[in-house]
Each structure stands twice: as structure tokens, then as C-alpha cells.
Amino acid sequence: MSLFSAAERTILRALADAALPPGQLLPGASAAALERCEALLESLPFKMGNAYRAMLWTLETGAVLRFGGRFSTLPLGRRLRVLEGVHAAEATRVMLRALLSPLKLAYLDDPSVHAALGCRYVIDPPKAKEQPRWQQQVTAADTLSPGETLECDVVVVGTGAGGAPIAARLAEAGHAVLLLEEGEHFTRADFTGRPVDMIKKMYRKGGLTASVGNHVIPIPIGKGVGGTTLINSGTCFRVPEKTLAGWHRDFDLTELTHDSLDPFYLQVEKELGVGVNTPAALGAPASLIAQGCDALGYSHHPLKRNAPECDGQGLCCFGCPTDAKRSTNVSYVPRALSAGAQLLTGFKVTRVLTEGERAVGVEGMAGGKTLTVRAKVVVLACGTLHTPLLLLNNRLANASGMVGRNLSIHPASAAAAIFDSEVNPSRTVPQGYAIDHFTAEGLMFEGGTVPLELTGLTLTGFGPSYVAAMEQFNRSFGFGFMVKDTSRGRVRAGPDGEPLITYWLNEHDQRLMQRAFSILSRVFFAAGARQVHPGVAGWETLRSLADVERFEAAKIDVRQYDLTAYHPLGTSRMGKDPHRSVVDPNHETHDVHNLFICDGSAMPGSLGVNPQLTIMAMSLRAAEVVDRRLAHLS
Fold first, then answer.
1. pLDDT tens digits, residue range 37-90?
2. Cα separations in angstroms, 137 against 12, 178, 191, 331, 548
3. Mean of the pLDDT values across residues 444-464?
4. Residue 57 in 3-state DSSP?
5. Distance between CA 567 and CA 610 in Å, rounded?
6. Res 1: pLDDT
7. 160 vs 496, which has greater pLDDT?
8. Which residues contact 34 (CB under 8 A, 6 or more apart)?
9. Phi and psi (nearest 5°) for 570?
10. Which of 620, 535, 625 lies closest to 167 in space, CA to CA?
């Protein structure tokens, strides 16, 4: 049974003709594009397709009040005026974005559209090679017998930045380690280079994880062996000294110093091959940002990344096509398995088993079967959103009432700029360069180029002007920024079994957002940009510094910003005081012995920089504590 009725397809066709008309290079939206849009909506979870149908009818009937006719029956010019009116109103702008996003994705996910813009559509498949021996330690959990009980020294729930390093270290120390992963084990053979396919395959909820509050903020996280390291940009920072000082002051975490963490950072940096990429891989975006910053006197530098042999294919967030990015699926997980650890995939942990005040294992589901793991030590590394959900569902480790609270996310956005010369953004490192001049203010600027389809999503316009901007793709690139947020949110158990995330962006952080867009626009113009396209509704195109000045003086509502977030932290935070924190300085929960939390949720607060390197270093630090504990329990 199809998602859309004949009448709904007529509305969708009318919307596509108005929003995605033919340009000088690009064709208009085809019938095949509309079919792909319908298929995409059918593949999304939680009945998103039904919500889309309701929005189509809202658009169709809403046009009657202003124009005296249904949207699909109006002439093309009037349909554009309807869309402009919907976009101008704060109450309906989000609806229009939701209507256009899958349509844009389906339209741009087309070989003919890529060819028209000179973009590559497919990547070369990897050469077949013999599977490494450690893959024999990977088992699909649903192949086990129902009710089966497994035993180990330590069970690690999660294979991302927090779980994989501690598993590797403990396995190498001779302990029996079992890794559990809810997602699947993907390899280069699974990475097609098609962003839409990869988002559906490797992003939790098809990339639809988001917070709600005074704005809807997408928080994309990974689901698969490697966790979110599988789909991130590979940026590696150590925790800033200023952040450590705040942790000392606010949480009495005087153990966490530059000197004490340095050995663990060095180990991680060596394992991941952390360093800067070649100028060729960084490409024109890095050169132009450097040029603009030099003109304005701003400090800037190449970013350190965990991709020492990156060749700049621009697909870091959709499965590295060469395994150059040393996410944990190609670094710490193989290292753990080579040392004798075992990995079960497709295993959703639902219970933490306890006896008295001690954790003794976990229980979960795989393919409709209940499975049990008995362990001397339990390590939760499910991530900042799912670790608190598991604790809340089990009513564990929450005597402080802090589980699920104190969520920081580094709210982020980006702008794109169009230049006179070729930039070729899809053939560069997506996030290879930084502007660090404003870190004291709580702003970090980092590269943000994305493939053609996602560039089409970041540009919030529609109609001829939108198509004209997309036709400049190879002469444009995006750059992003994030805020070291003072806002905080919360994670609760949602009705669908997934985290319910609430987050309100406060006025201080909103002002930083406006300032960041201004700074970035000035850098672009100083580098010679012809146009700048900020992710701000009502300010979609800036053509001069005069436009920037008007933007700086404007009152911007939070709902005008096009926001995302990639670094959720703090929902099971660390601290000495058990009344204000969930885990102690050794990552063990205050309330339950032998239950350790090693992921972003244990971070005491916002870092102000990308957190994966710090999460990994802290995981290795916790491994020493668990190693000693296991020796004592033996």
C-alpha cells in the first residue's frame, strides 16, 4: 500500500514545481524524484509519513483563506507567494522546512543532478581482501539461543568513543571482555557514499534524534559498531585548561589536570594517528578561510584529526570510504577483539542486573530473544542520551536526582558562501580547518562542508533563487561554528522507548549565535565571497558588509536559527559530591558498586571543543581503575 493518495501526489507535484523549478543547469523535480521522496518518507520511523501527509493537506487547504483556492490549483506564481507567506510566519516556518527537506533530498539524490553540477555520484567500491581473524569474534546476538546466559569479567555496553578504548585495554590486560552493540557491524563494503542511504543505515532514528524546547535541534548520533565515531568528522581536541579549571571549581575534580590526563591523551593520539591533513586534502575552503582571517587579524589553524591518510573525499560523516578515519570500528574495537574480547551486535540492553548494591550483569533483547550476561563489572557506554535512559528505566544510580539532567549539546550552525572561482567542496576534508580567535567568548569555528544533498538542506530557500544558489555548488562551501553553551537540557524516558530530550537555548547563547554568524560572514567577505547564506530565516542571503551590519543590529528570534548539535554531554556527570553528581572521579556510580559509566554523559559539563578525544582518554584512565578492581575481585 502506497503512502500517498492520488490527491496527495497532486499536492506534492504542485509543491515540487514551485519549490524546485528548472534552472540554467539543473532540471526541475522529476516524477522519479517524487517517488524517491515517498519511499524516503515510508522508510522513516515513528509514522513520519503520516505527519507529512497532514502537512501537505495543511498547505493545500491553508491557501484557500488567502488566495481563494487550494494550493495545487493555483498558478505557479501564486504558489510561490503562498510558500513565501508560510516561510515568513514563525508559526509555520518549521512546517515548510519539514515539507521541503525530504523533497530536496530526493531531488538532489539523482545521478543526473550530480552530473549537471560536475559532482561525483558513486564511489569506487573497495577491493576485496581477506577478512582479519578478529572478525571471528563478532557474533550477531540473534543467533544465540533464547534465554542464554553468558559470563565474563567485564561487560561493556557500547562500542563508541567511551566503550571501545576501555574494552581494548582490559582485554589486553587479560580480562574476559564482552562488548555489546545495539547496532550492526559495518565495513567499507557497506559504505556507498550516498548520504541518504548511509543516514538511514547508520544514524539512529534515521538522523531524526532531536531536542525540543524553544527550538527543535537535531542531534544526529550513530548506531553501529563504532557509535558516533563512525559518522563524525574526526576532529580531535584536548580539553581546554579553562574547562578543567571550571571542573576543579564546580565539582572538586582536582584529579583531572593537564599532567594527569596527558599520558592517556598521548596513547589515544598515537592509536588514532592524530594530526593535520595535507593542504591538498584541506583544499580551497581552508585557504579561503585563512585568507579571510588574515585580512581581519583572526587566529586560525588546521584541525587535528584521526585520519592520517585522508584523501579528502568529503564523506567522513557517512562511512569513510578508505578507512583513513580511525573511528573505533577500525581502531579500538579490532584491537580489543584481537586481544580476545568478544562482540555481540544487535543486542539492546534493557536491564542492569544488581545484587544488593553491586552490579552483576545486564539483560537485553536480540531478535525477540531475551539474553543475559553475568559479569563482575558493568561498564555503560551507551552515550549521553541512552545511558541516562537505561539508568532511569532501571531506577538506578539516581539518589542525587541528577541522572538525565545537566545536558549540554554545543548548539551549532553554519553559513555558506559563493565565490567567483571554483572551490570543489565535495573533494576536500569536510572539517579540516578552524578559527580559534573567539574561544574565550565560547565560540569555536570549524569547517562544515557537506555533500550536495545536505548542502541543499542547509540552504533554507526554495524556488528559482534556491535553484540558482544550488547551481553555484562548486563555487561555494560551508563553514560551521558551535557555542560552549551555558544553556542546559534534560533527558527523560519518552513514550516510544527512545530518549525524550528537552533543551531551551538561553538569551546568552542566542546572542553568541548572532555574533558567530556575523563573524563568519565577515570572514567570508574578507576572503572575496560574492554572497553569504547564513542559516537564519529572513536573512538567507547577505550581499555586502552593509547587510552584515543590518543583521548585527537586528533582533533575531531563536526560531529563526537553523540549529544542529553534535556533542551531547553531562547527563550522568562526574563529581566528588554524591548529591550533585552520578559518578565519582573514577567513573564508578556513587550508588551502585562495580557499575561504571564511560561516555559523554560522565563529562561534568560543556567542553567547548569536540569531545571524542577526551572521552577516549578518560576511558583509558577508567580502565586502570577497573583493572585493579577486577584483580581484587578475582
1. 999 898 876 677 889 999 999 999 998 988 889 999 999 999 999 999 998 887
2. 48, 10, 22, 15, 56
3. 90
4. helix
5. 7
6. 60
7. 160
8. 9, 12, 13, 16, 103, 106
9. 95, 5
10. 620
Domains, the chain, ordered by start = 6-116 (no CATH), 133-206+224-234+237-271+323-403+570-633 (3.50.50.60), 279-305+412-484+506-560 (3.30.410)
Pairing of strands 433-435, 300-302: antiparallel
Strand-pair partners of 140: 345
Q: Which helix (H) or strand (E) holds 625?
A: helix 612-633
Give residue 509's pLDDT: 98
Q: Is 492 helix (H, G, I), strand (E, B) or coil?
A: strand
For the record, the C-alpha cell of 354 comes out as 544488581
Q: Letter for the amino acid at 482?
A: M
Nearest to 205 by CA among 188, 187, 225, 182: 182
- Residue 414: strand, helix, or coil: strand
> 1-22, pLDDT tens digit by residue?
688 999 999 999 999 999 999 9
Q: What count of residues does the chain have?
A: 634
| C-alpha–C-alpha distance, residues 371 and 389, integer Å | 20
Helix (H) or strand (E) holding 447: strand 443-447
Amino acid code (one letter) for 200:
K
Cell numbers given for 514: 548572532
Q: Is 116 exposed, middle or buried (0-12, 13-18, 19+ CB in 10 A)?
A: middle
Going by C-alpha positions, the residue among 104, 107, 66, 102 that lies closest to residue 83 is 66
Cα distances (Å, whole numbers) of residue 261 to 169, 240, 328, 331, 612: 16, 12, 20, 20, 14
pTM for the full predicted model? 0.95
Look up residue 191 and give its amino acid. F
CA separation for the pair 191, 260 (Å, rounded): 38
Task: State the average pLDDT over residues 337-358.
Answer: 97
For residues 26 and 117, is the Cβ–Cβ distance under 8 A?
A: yes
Query: Which residue in 451, 399, 613, 367 sits closest to 113, CA to CA?
Result: 451
Q: Taking CA 464 as the corner, what is the angle to CA 460 and CA 465, rounded to the nearest 5 degrees?
A: 50
Convert the pLDDT of each residue in 167-222 to its tens digit: 999 999 999 999 999 999 999 889 998 998 999 899 999 888 999 999 999 999 99
Q: Quote the strand ranges of 195-341, DSSP E.
A: 210-213, 217-218, 300-302
Exposed/middle/buried for residue 98 (C-beta within 10 Å: 0-12, 13-18, 19+): middle
Coil, strand, or helix at residue 578? coil
Give the three-state DSSP class for 237: coil
Task: List alpha helices for 339-476, DSSP H.
Answer: 386-394, 452-458, 463-470
The sign one gets for the Cα dihedral 595, 600, 605, 611 is positive
76 vs 626: CA distance, rounded Å: 66
- Is the pLDDT higher at 478 or at 126? 478
Reduce the DSSP state of residue 56 to 3 states and report it: helix
Q: Which residue has the cell 519518552?
A: 494
Are residues 576 and 249 in contact, defined by beta-carbon separation less than 8 angstroms?
A: no
